[in-house]
Amino acid sequence: MVSECGPFEVMALSSETPELVIASVACAAWTYVLLMRGGFWRAAERDDDESSASCLPDVWPRVIAVVPARNEAEVIAASVISLLRQDYRGAFEIVVVDDHSTDGTAALAHAAAANAGLANRLAVLSAPSLPTAWTGKLWAMNCGTGYVDDLPVPPDYVLFTDADISYSSEALTTLVVRAERHGLVLTSLMAKLHCESFGERALIPAFIFFFRMLYPFAWVNRPERSTAAAAGGCMLVQRKALQAAGGIAAVRGELIDDCALGRLLKRQGPIWLGLTQRARSLRAFRSIGEIRPMISRSAYAQLRYSPWLLIGTVAAIAVTCLAPPLLAVGTSGVPRLLAAAAWVQMALALQPTLRYYAVSRWWGAGMPAIAAAYLAFTLDSAFQHSRGRGGLWKGRVHGPAPEGR
Predict the structure, then answer these.
(1) Three-state SS for 191?
(2) Rounded distance, CA 148 to CA 134, Å?
């Protein structure tokens, strides 16, 4: 049988093949993301369901909040007051661990509690000098757990919370009810981040989206799944489970400390991670330049400091996020249709997160540009690591975890 394709048709097909392959891969990748990643994009795992409050414990467990704080003068008072005003029915106290602050963080925490007439429920510790094998936040958390473990009546749960998180009055009650009802060793809430400036509206919803893509909450919350993660701003931990796992020392060198703690504790029992309106970040980012350090400090650590994983990440983002708009505009025929479909899929995938943050749905169409910004931050993270400045945060540099850990 003689082929009906002439030389010009064969040449046209050959020139179209690379674009067709790239567009097909991008479209297939986003189809997989929508259908096969635990439905993470729907943002369905939240703590605002009423079922968690339908079964109250007979005896309310004792809880102590441990707040690691380093140079948090702008936010520490509001955070402490929100904790002191919890309507929790059980015993609840707060321990602020001052991590060598130079801005009066400890004094402001004391003053906030005193002004509220609740200074008897707050203890402020000074963290000892940072050992070389530890990251700063984990060392402060370890100092706090050491303090509570030595109390005459240690708590049943420890609430690890960042100094820039503000809680609604029922937040702790909701956390404890969920933990007690489901026998959770770790109950974590992803605090709602500040999202008002242009940079925040451009990048914060995508930050939450990409985190959930890496760690689908539905998978984290299933005991039979190995996926584990947590959100470091709010983690209610069963104290005995933490002790059985080796304590904070077991993850002392981890830069992405919350997910490391999630992995550690999931070996001890079920964990739960969800979005919340009950915990909100007080930290505002006025520009994209202020958001960059938050991402770049740990982006290369997420890739396990591997140049090969970095190359793979660059290629993956280039194909799945950057190529679709270029091919949708610059090609024709099937490649254009597939590229446009990939672009539409990524825009649709971001919509539930945009609604959650009350941001215009049109930011979804900007996903390629947003992904390009995150790629730039990741490359910057690798570059800073190569200069010996990896993990720079609040004046401290944290390198990779020690060998063998």
Answers:
(1) strand
(2) 20
CATH of segment(s) 50-284: 3.90.550.10
Does the structure show a pLDDT above 80 at 144?
Answer: yes
CB crowding 131-158: b at 16 or more within 10 Å, else e = eeebbbbbbbbbbbbebbeeeeebbbbb
Q: Taking residues 306-328, what's their average pLDDT?
A: 97
In this prediction, residues 382-401 reach a mean pLDDT of: 73
End-to-end distance of the chain based on CA atoms, in angstroms?
64
Strands 122-126 and 186-192 turn out to be unpaired
Give residue 287's pLDDT band: very low, low, confident or very high (50, 70, 90): very high
Residue 278 DSSP SS3: strand
Residue 184: both structure tokens together: 């959770």
Q: What is the pTM of this model?
A: 0.92
pLDDT, mean of residues 284-309: 93
In angstroms, the CA 130 to CA 140 distance is: 9
CA 136 – CA 255 distance, rounded (Å): 9
pLDDT of 6 reads 54
User: For residue 325, how many other CB atoms are within 10 A of its CB?
Assistant: 19
Q: How far is CA 399 from CA 46, 82, 125, 241, 252, in A?
A: 34, 34, 26, 28, 12
For 90, the token pair is: 């059980």
Structure-block tokens of residue 42: 């729907």
Q: Indicate the domain borders of the chain.
A: 16-41+289-384, 50-284
Give the distance, in angstroms, between the CA of residue 102 and the centroid of all CA atoms in the same chain: 27
Question: Binning pLDDT at 50, 70 and 90, where does residue 133 land?
Answer: confident
Q: How far is residue 231's CA from residue 261's CA, in Å, rounded to a whole number?
A: 10
Residues in the chain: 405
The DSSP secondary-structure symbol of 393 reads: B
